[in-house]
Every structure is written in C-alpha cells, then in structure tokens.
Amino acid sequence: MEKDILKNKNGVALVIALIMLLILTFIGISAISTTTFETNITGNERVGTAAFYASEAVFQIGLRQLDALDSATKVKPIPRTPIGEDSYGWSGSPKDKDSPKNLISFGMYPKSGYDSSWAFNRYQINVTGESFGAMKEVEAQVSYGPFPSGTQY
Fold first, then answer.
1. Taking the CA atoms of the chain, what radius of gyration do you get in angstroms?
2. Each residue of 98-133: b (16+ CB within 10 Å) or e?
3. What digits encode the pLDDT tens for the residues 25-77?
4. Which of 29, 57, 125, 139 would you call most buried, defined as having the most Cβ atoms within 10 angstroms of its Cβ?
5. Which of 146, 150, 142, 148 is nearest to 60 (CA)?
6. SS3 at position 74
7. E strands, 35-117, where?
C-alpha cells in the first residue's frame, strides 16, 4: 500500500504551481525594492546636481565682481542669493549661510612673460550652493590681471 502512495501523482501540478508562484513573488519583490532604491539614488543625484549648479552660479557672480575691480577695491561677500526654484547660494562655507564671507585676495604677484611694470591679482573664491536641503561647495583660485604695478618708469 505504501508503494501505491508513491506512485500516485495527483496534486503534483498544484505543488509545482505553488513553488513557481513563490519564486515569481520573490523576483517581483526584488524588482520592486531595486526600483525603489534606484529611484532614491536618482533623486539624490538630481538634488546634488541642482546644489552644484547653484554654487556654480554664485561662483560666476564672484567672477563678475572681479571684472568690476581695480587693484585697490576690496571684494564684497555674496549674500544668500536665490538661484532658481528652491536653490540658493552664498560666498563662504556651508556654515556661513547667515554671514557670508569675503572673497579672499592674496594680493599682487608677478607672472612670467610680463615685465616688472605689470602684476596679477590672485583671489580665492569659496561659494556654497543649496538646493532642497543638499549643499555643495566650490572653491577655486583665480589669477586676474594684468594690472600696472611699480613706478611705471
């Protein structure tokens, strides 16, 4: 009688169908969790890119300030400036949000290829951009000139 139970194949299709359904359910859950994770990554990247572009915009404002300078004018801080929808930027680091810092001047220096009657100013521009809570900081040193220097004899 035990041999008859082993030879009976009734219900095998149901067991195989349930196992296949279980495997497909696990594949579906895995696909959904992967899609959710990838969506979060994409959203974070978009917000970070928007913050970077906001800091780049404020950096360009700083460069335009240098265009208006002569060798004696001091560079002013760039206050918290709206850049597009929910994006802001200012000069300084992320902690300088409420009190932006001046662009840093390293003074005049000679440059090869120019005689001693010409010099260049070197500046450091630190700016921070913020978008939807994400912050990106950009720092660059800029050589600007030539400016007349010395006695001009």
1. 32
2. eebeebebeebeeeeeeeeebbbbbbebbbbbbbee
3. 999 999 999 999 999 999 999 999 999 999 999 999 988 888 776 555 667 88
4. 125
5. 142
6. coil
7. 81-82, 87-91, 104-109
